[in-house]
């Protein structure tokens, strides 16, 4: 690398490629030391992570009071979608009625998205893989199977993409209502193009609301932020009973378990 | 070995063969589904008309979740194409959507040819001429259109490569 002082910007040189290569290297480094979906663990490593950070100590105590264990998700910008997908698939292992309900929604989602204007050819590809992996829950009924699905990079990312497309579709269908959440004068189509559909784009409140609304899956997020006071929880959609629990640390989501 | 990327690329290829967009062709290279050669014909009623521009497309196992790397192999003169042939196009970088396929990528590049974005120039000379001296711009483009045919000859007749005027 050139030293900063020797660096002269050349407008006709392609820096995009260098930037992308650098990003990929950082990603590889993270991938090397973290599973896409980690094993269930107690909170020892969480304690260690924040032992010198007074702002988080009280919140960690709150987490430990409410939950028994957690599962780490790889920090790659897709953590919300991957955590949501895994935790929900896992919860379906013990809930055949809910499985039937969601299987029906997932089946119908394909035609809905095509009606909304998503390209049929590529949409079918993602939908097919999504359904194939979902249906494995009924046949295999094993947590090992779900872990294998979500730790196989290609398959795991296909599921993340399909969840992203469901969010994009839902937001565009309900544009009138959700438009007011957007800043910077972007249209909903632009927002979805830039912040929802591309892999690695981090999720915000609006993604969570949309995914829980579109799928009818209730999720509780416990926010471990730097704010004063107790651990704050939000349930999406409000006033329902959560089937999955996520832990938010600034910029990242992991999965929480009561048992 | 079948991976989601390879399976998808086979499907992309099948679709491109069965339902090719106008002025576009592409196929995997001989024994590597991850590396494609493509041709875009210059769109009608543009300075690029009649050009046959070759491109290379390189995929990773992360396709279609990450964009492929697309480059012009033929010489190009265009505000958004770098000297090395790589293309400055948002959907190939930060606005990539996994719902795009090879056909969508090539169609977008085809429309970039007649609809440059002078706000993100990769070739300053082309960007300035496009804005300030359209006639000169079109002349330069016509030169690379003629050169694109010479590329074809190279291929048909690689053993006795004719002298090209380009270098």
Task: Briefly summarize what is shown.
The complex is a heterodimer of chains A (259) and B (167). Chain A contains 11 helices and 6 strands.
Task: Summarize the topology.
The complex is a heterodimer of chains A (259) and B (167).
Chain A: H1 15-33, E1 37-41, H2 44-49, H3 54-66, E2 69-73, H4 79-92, H5 96-115, H6 120-140, H7 143-151, H8 153-173, H9 175-178, H10 188-196, H11 205-215, E3 219-223, E4 232-236, E5 244-249, E6 252-257
Parallel strand pairs in A: 3-5
Antiparallel strand pairs in A: 1-2, 2-6, 3-4, 5-6
Helix pairs in contact in A: 4-7, 5-6, 6-8, 8-10, 8-11
Chain B: H1 4-18, E1 24-29, E2 32-41, E3 52-58, E4 69-72, H2 102-114, H3 124-132, H4 134-156
Antiparallel strand pairs in B: 1-2, 2-3, 3-4
Helix pairs in contact in B: 3-4
Largest sheet of chain A: 6 strands, mixed
Q: Give me the Rg of chain B, rounded.
A: 16 Å
Order of helices and strands of chain B: HEEEEHHH
The amount of beta strand of chain A, in percent, is 5-15%
Q: Average pLDDT of chain A, to the nearest integer?
A: 90
- Could you please say which CATH topology of chain B applies here? Ubiquitin Conjugating Enzyme
User: Most extensive interface, residues per chain?
Assistant: A-B, 29 and 31 residues
Helix content of chain B: 25-40%
General description of the model:
Chain B: One of its GO terms (molecular function) is ubiquitin conjugating enzyme activity. The complex is a heterodimer of chains A (259) and B (167). In chain A, 57% of the residues lie in helices and 12% in strands. Chain A has helices at residues 15-33, 44-49, 54-66, 79-92, 96-115, 120-140, 143-151, 153-173, 175-178, 188-196, 205-215, and strands spanning 37-41, 69-73, 219-223, 232-236, 244-249, 252-257. A 6-stranded mixed β-sheet of chain A has the order 1-2-6-5-3-4. In chain A, helix 8 crosses helix 11 (205-215). Chain B has 167 residues and is α+β, with helices and mostly antiparallel strands. Chain B has one domain (4-148): Roll (Ubiquitin Conjugating Enzyme), CATH 3.10.110. Chain B has helices at residues 4-18, 102-114, 124-132, 134-156; strands at 24-29, 32-41, 52-58, 69-72. A 4-stranded antiparallel β-sheet of chain B has the order 1-2-3-4. In chain B, a hairpin with a 2-residue loop joins strand 1 (24-29) and strand 2. Residues 156-167 of chain B have low confidence and may be disordered. The interface between A and B is medium-sized, with 29 and 31 residues.
